[in-house]
Amino acid sequence: MKSFFVAKSLRERVLLLALVGLALAWWGTSILGRLNLTRRDWLSLVAERTEQSLWLKNRNAIAEQAAVAAKQLDPARTLDATQLLAELNQYASGLNAEIGAQRTERTSGFAMHSLQVNLRRVDLPGLLRFYQSLAARTPYIGIEQCSLTVDRANPGLLNASFRISAVQAIKPP
Asked: What pTM value is reported for the model?
């Protein structure tokens, strides 16, 4: 290989070295990109493991707090999916509201119903009235997510998006 390289003219040697250097740089950036992705995955796994170990370490305290919270709930005041939809329709009356499909997650003693509610072009007093109606039903109805934006056509109005959930106590058969 050395004799092949030495037998070439200076221009050919420079071009050959430049080509090999370019190939190494291309390969090196690819390797660095993969190493960076691997590093990010590793850090994510470490953070997730730390979080899971914290949950497991505090599992008894969490179970006790959940039991205390469950005892404080009045099963008669919990809402099924239909009641949640009816209450949200009532709270949003007079507002330009769009209520999305519901999602329900069930456990042995509880069901969590959640809905997406989008309020378009609503004034601040109407939005506050809606929020206060929800707040009056805490802890049976809660807001999981909320985002507010100003309406582009009319800066005096707001667009709001809520992910609202309600808990239902399920009686064992």
From this structure: 0.62
